[in-house]
């Protein structure tokens, strides 16, 4: 079992490595200058839907932007690319954007609120009734600097459970979470969609908690920008956020869910079945008690960035020794 000292050291060491990389000379050309292409990184999860849909529907192109999406399997690779100047604009977990690093970062647009869940292996249904029963378990998290990890740590601590000494929080790429659950490598995971939905459909897992039960309308993902790039390219930065707002409005309209899911299911976007994506937008899932739930606020796109939420994330990053 990890100790606080070891976990704090690992978190600091990882951030220090990224900081050293970020301190290197930025060799990438200034994306967006003179109408050049802007490469935007993303991890293929439902939270990135406004970014992907803005590309698919031409919302970027209509504003004169040449956006080139680049997919990353996990957050560490994406963050390294951003800190070393390979990316100036990127999909980013909101806590990443407020973590002090070698490259000043601006959280330019909150992509989504809610939309995450704590999924536990179905074969543990008779043994787990709540967070108190996670002692001694292994729970997957997508990144230390994620709202998932921060919310889970806070929820556990509020119930007298030490999230470091009493269980293991194991880093996993989102795409690996269901497979690890199926083979018994983990007892559950707190993560993004459509992977909770995939675990539900396969029978491997059941939703113990939606993270909105711990904090309704909590932020999750963002599009963030290097502050240096944003200052140098205010027109492009504004056009990007306007396109994201247009796509968010489309996604929030119930009549568009099926079409959006079909578009985002393409290999170049989420590369997941539309049948897994649409229920996320509709808010349909089966809870731990086996009840079918429809919650229109399961995920919401494009809420204004809340300064109080930003402050809370910063406090939690400090609280858990991640800064």
From TrEMBL:
Q: Which UniProt keywords apply?
A: Cell inner membrane, Cell membrane, Membrane, Transport
**InterPro entries xref list:** NrtA/CpmA_ABC-bd_dom (IPR044527), TAT_signal (IPR006311)
CDD domains noted in UniProt: PBP2_NrtA_CpmA_like (cd13553)
- Write down the superkingdom of origin: Bacteria
Where does this protein reside within or beyond the cell? Cell inner membrane
UniProt xrefs under SUPFAM superfamilies: Periplasmic binding protein-like II
* Gene Ontology CC terms: plasma membrane
> Which Gene3D superfamilies does this UniProt record tie to the protein?
Periplasmic binding protein-like II
Checking PROSITE patterns in the record gives: TAT (PS51318)
Entry's Pfam families?
A: NMT1_2
Similarity comment: family membership: Belongs to the CmpA/NrtA family.
> By what name is this protein known?
ABC-type nitrate/sulfonate/bicarbonate transport system, periplasmic component
């Amino acid at each position: 079992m990890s100790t606080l000292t070891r976990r704090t050291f690992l978190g600091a060491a990882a951030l220090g490595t990224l900081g050293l990389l970020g301190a290197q000379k930025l060799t990438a050309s200034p994306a967006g200058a003179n109408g050049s292409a802007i490469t935007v990184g993303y991890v293929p999860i439902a939270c990135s839907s406004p970014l992907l849909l803005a590309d698919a529907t031409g919302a970027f192109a209509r504003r004169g932007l040449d956006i080139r999406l680049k997919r990353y399997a996990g957050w560490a690779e994406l963050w390294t690319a951003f800190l070393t100047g390979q990316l100036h604009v990127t999909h980013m977990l909101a806590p990443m954007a407020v973590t002090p690093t070698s490259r000043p970062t601006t959280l330019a647009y909150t992509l989504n609120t809610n939309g995450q869940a704590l999924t536990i292996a179905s074969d543990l249904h008779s043994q787990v009734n709540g967070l108190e029963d996670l002692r001694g378990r292994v729970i997957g998290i997508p990144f230390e600097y994620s709202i998932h990890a921060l919310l889970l740590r806070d929820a556990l601590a509020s119930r007298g459970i030490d999230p470091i000494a009493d269980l293991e929080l194991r880093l996993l790429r989102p795409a690996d979470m269901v497979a690890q659950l199926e083979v018994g490598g983990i007892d559950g995971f707190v993560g993004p969609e459509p992977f909770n939905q995939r675990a539900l459909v396969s029978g491997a897992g059941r939703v113990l908690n939606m993270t909105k039960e711990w904090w309704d309308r909590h932020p999750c993902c963002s599009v963030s920008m290097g502050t240096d790039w944003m200052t140098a390219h205010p027109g492009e930065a504004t056009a990007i956020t306007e396109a994201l707002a247009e796509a968010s409005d489309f996604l929030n309209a119930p009549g568009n869910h099926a079409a959006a899911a079909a578009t985002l299911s393409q290999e170049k976007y989420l590369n997941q079945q539309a049948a897994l994506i649409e229920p996320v937008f509709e808010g349909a899932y089966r809870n731990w008690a086996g009840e079918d739930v429809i919650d229109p606020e399961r995920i919401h796109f494009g809420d204004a960035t809340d300064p109080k939420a930003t402050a809370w994330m910063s406090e939690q990053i400090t609280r858990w020794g991640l800064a």
